[in-house]
Amino acid sequence: MSIPPPPGPHQPQGPYPPGPFAPPGPWGYGYGGYAQPVPVNGVAIAALVLGILCFLPAVGLVLGLVALAQIKKRGERGRGMAIAGSVLSVVGLVLWTVSLSTGVVSDAVDGLKDAARGEGTAYALAKGDCFDSGTGSLQGDAYDVDEVPCSRAHHGEVFAVVTLPSGSFPGDDEVTDLADDKCYALQEDYAMDAWAVPENVDVYYLVPSEDSWTFGDREITCVFGDVDEKKSLTGSLRNDATNLDADQVAFLKSANALDRVLYEEPSDYPEDDLPANRTWAGDVATALGEQAETLRGRSWPGDSAGAVTDLASDLDAARKEWAKAAAAKDADTYYERYDAGYDYIDGDSTVTARKALGLATTVPSYDEDYEGGGGGGDAGNLDV
Are 13 and 7 in contact (CB under 8 A)? Predict the structure, then answer.
């Protein structure tokens, strides 16, 4: 199975810690939990004041550009004010300047347009891009990132970009909740084989701030990053139909379908809510039967055919144990059948089949501190 189920009474927790750049939560794949508020750049305030007053527009423009450089370097707030002040100053210069033959004002306007569109900033990243965080962290506020080749050591890799609808800023909490839901649901599409994702990797996300929203930022950027916030990622984590063959994709789809059911394990112990656990066990038994049928229904290449057939037989045996758990009359009987059923999942036959198909064969070790299934939990986020 590509991703193990959430922790149950006897089940270790999943391989991914919660949350790409986000607030406290999963990879925290988000940023949050700041010890101190990020200061507002004073030069940006001055640029905005001069821009509004249209007084000394050349000075306002220079201050705006200086503020943008300082904000990028220091990680301060006020980027929106710096851009607004510079834009207003440019307008003042246009009104005050008789000739634009030197092209200086035109170049300034183009530069400000790029800044407002987010070119060179965190929200200019696309799916498949690798990058370094300007702050060296995947949590907190991000004002810019540096796109780098995935072959180089990097902080993160974008696996999905979600565009939010237009309208007023929905608020930090709602944006973070949306990022948490969307990013964890989309990680499997980019990295189909969770066994191939290093254990030090989790999901983070970059989310719009109220300031960046004002300038048209509507993107949630879902990211794989190092939980230790080190530039230790090298090479792309992508494994999907773009670089897997049809047999590998078919195998992983069947495995991931089972994993999704396993992740739905009730949070209450069987002794507290036996009916809910029995219902879930019945769902697992059904999913196991469907996976075994899917594996048997496909013609597998070469030596992998026998290995996949053996795995399907083990899935049938597991299905019978889970069916017994679904019919258990008491918690003790349920636990007994539950443990017996899990003995078959990610076992030797799974490893053998994966090896025959050229997939990752190292069974993930599960983090006991992880809460939630399917990569859920509290993701990390980065406000941009």
Answer: yes
